[in-house]
């Protein structure tokens, strides 16, 4: 009577919809109920409970493994409705590891041989989901019988279940393959459809084994009218055709015929894909297909458009013309509403990229990036960055352009590719000497923009910019301005490690300025000593010299005198500046730069730096703290010895002054030594010392970590320059005398910085080489015509002539992409068996048990790893399986098992054994060796078999 | 093969979930959630494809169709044709329509086992078994008949549905 009050599934569902106590509370209450009911001895109650439990497990994700035994119990019920519930529950919840699986073999056998076709169908359905090696092996005879069943309803399911059975138990192929092939010729199209489906699955995994069946498939391809069947056959041929050129030749015509005739888009698309993947050598077929692709591209259905773009990207590497022919549509699709389509067309645009059009395409893409949403914007940037840097910037000719493009990318609001841009900026800086001035210009523009530190995604770019402008400071037009930028208050927004780079760069700039000042002063000093002589001696040579340096000379003299006479030179400096600017106009850029290093400006610089860096000594970050200290001590050292010296004009100080200038010179030299890229393989070239056994006992590790990827080429870091710089600091530190600079000075400097910054953006007259920046207002207007631009650009075939030759890009051995480890040859016990069956030779029995894996390669990998890991466990497995299995990993057992079950002669097993002896077996690695042996065998089969194929074909 | 079939409503509640390779329930839940996350963010009138490789791993594709309050989702690999899968969704929905006479979400919710019966006649072990909805209907009707016949033998009335408001 207990089930009188039991809730059915329907009650449960309705109750769930009406519940007031909260879903999870309701469900856990229901689950408690189910746990009680499922133990009932009444089959109805149990079935009901199981039904509810399966529902909860399927749609509310409750684990129902606790009920596995009850499922088995219910399977044996005689009532169809109970059986149905039980089979459904089993299919839903059983995995290969479910322990009770061993209990259901007999029940399944009983149901498979039942006279009720619906019961048979239930059992087959369940088997198609849960079949294990044992089940597959034990039930193969029953399935074989069903393959010949007169009822279509049963037979098609029996065919379907073969896929799983073959997977689990390849020896079943010997028994069932013939009947499976016979079903291909069945008059019932549903049966053919399912059979072809099974072959399609099998052929996709290991196509070569199914080459001998080409005639059967060909017949279906030509005769069948069922689109589902044709699609599957086309998929098979797409795999077979590349393996056998003669087959491809035969197939091309029927495929093209289908393309011309069919009205079904799915079949049409499959034909297109078959041509693109398997028959791309046949120009005529490709042409037919490209026409069809164009039709699909302009179709209103976004699905067709998407698939057509996808088909194009399949063919792009081999037939780029097919993409180029459709470029208008491809480019228009960049602004499609559908993300799929946009991404696919972006991929195609990147495929069209070449060194001739890279600049133009990238510009248009960047403009698209400006318009698009964050996600797509970053997709665009990502593809530009990865395409351009591929193979050490292969397609980049004009690096100045590329560097300014990188700078522009940083200013795109959605840009999140800071790290990649940082990497490339520094990489290019180290590899390409010629581009350094432009790099420094770009860096300066980035650093000087006070808005950028506000965007955390750009911090990495700023760090690269700071490092670059410090490292290649000699290319700076205006070091003072850069110093302002490096020390601007907004740097507080940056991460500490980036601020540290800023501080370090500031030091580099400072050393550079001092060094330049000293050089300049050294020149003038030498002239001033010659002063009288030059005037007296009226040498033609020296007069030329004197006249050359006259302006500088005068200024310096004027600058010197007031300093000697008057300690407060503030007032005079104004007058002095005026004079300087007048000379500036006449001289070239370089000399104007040198003229900038006056005593005045150096003192200002020192004060400014000191003022900005002093607060940093209170920083919590040791990197910043240390570098700030370094700068402050250095300034102390310099100020004392260098700048005060002219005041005293003491002979004794001359030597000290020389010492200081020597220090500065040493530091300058240290900083200006060129840093090159480091090869990834540099470490490998260090010879291993004798007696050091690196590989010992670590062989297993390699297998375990075999799939771990090597770190990419990005092994350049900011670390090395920093180390070098620190090495330069071996200067004795003098006691520091704090000299607080006037605060109003710093604010005025700040104001000046802002003014300069503003001015910079207004003056677009600045030389922009050949590439206008993104926020150029003129360009913004253009963006609407992007499509047309790019189309035009791609249509016009003329090669833009490159005025500049491509600069040398430093390359290292390690820059070649590391050759990917050879993919493991597929382990194909199944296909081996299939080959044997097809070729009628039974000489090569397979060891079906050698893998417990499913076919999905990823899973198999995991399995192999496991096997290598724990050989012990494997052996345990072998023993376990041996109890009931005809074959095992061990080939001795294998042949033995064979003899028992299938009556195949034992000597074949022995042959294999001999074969296997070639590969020395270690007991601990038995399994992996065994696999190796199998792999070694496969090519042999193939070689032996290929000559047979033509007979089948012709 | 077809890896998975899902029916999810627009609120993200799964209405039908079938995985043709074993997945632990926790994983199933996670997969359904991520699929819904992607689907719910897609606009109307865009293509019916979603990049599935980030969710289901390499060599997987996903097509979906949106009917009223339900998403019908098929996940499959390279041995199936994308457009054919869209057609198969259509077959599935048409069959349900015939089965329930103007199918709506409530039918899907309340007829858990019938949904599975229909699906099992269309897809078998991840392979397309039957593509004609009339054939499917025939088989489904036969199964239902046998099911109720086997239940009718039972002498005890099945149950009462008075407990639902408990």
UniProtKB/TrEMBL annotation, chain A:
Comp. bias intervals (Basic residues): 890-905, 919-933
Keywords annotated in UniProt: Golgi apparatus, Membrane, Protein transport, Repeat, Transport
Matching SUPFAM superfamilies: ARM repeat
Biased composition (Basic and acidic residues): 864-883, 907-917
Entry GO terms, CC: AP-3 adaptor complex; endosome membrane; Golgi apparatus
Highest taxon in the source lineage: Eukaryota
Gene Ontology biological-process annotations: Golgi to vacuole transport; protein targeting to vacuole
Start and end residues of each stretch annotated as Disordered: 764-785, 838-954
Oligomer and partners: Adaptor protein complex 3 (AP-3) is a heterotetramer.
Described purpose of this protein according to its UniProt entry: Part of the AP-3 complex, an adaptor-related complex which seems to be clathrin-associated. The complex is associated with the Golgi region as well as more peripheral structures. It facilitates the budding of vesicles from the Golgi membrane and may be directly involved in trafficking to the vacuole. It also function in maintaining the identity of lytic vacuoles and in regulating the transition between storage and lytic vacuoles.
Protein name per the record: AP-3 complex subunit delta
UniProtKB/TrEMBL annotation, chain B:
GO biological process: Golgi to vacuole transport; intracellular protein transport
Highest taxon listed in the record's lineage: Eukaryota
Keyword Transport belongs to the record: yes
Domain named AP complex mu/sigma subunit: residues: 1-145
Entry keyword Thylakoid: no
Gene3D superfamilies: 3.30.450.60
Gene Ontology annotations for the cellular component aspect, listed alphabetically: AP-3 adaptor complex; cytoplasmic vesicle membrane; Golgi apparatus
Alphabetized InterPro entries for the sequence: AP_complex_ssu (IPR016635), AP_mu_sigma_su (IPR022775), APS3 (IPR027155), Clathrin_sm-chain_CS (IPR000804), Longin-like_dom_sf (IPR011012)
Cellular compartments annotated: Cytoplasmic vesicle membrane; Golgi apparatus
Keywords noted in UniProt: Cytoplasmic vesicle, Golgi apparatus, Membrane, Protein transport, Transport
Record's bilayer topology term: Peripheral membrane protein
Record-stated family: Belongs to the adaptor complexes small subunit family.
Name recorded for this polypeptide: AP complex subunit sigma
Organism in which the protein naturally occurs: Malus domestica (Apple)
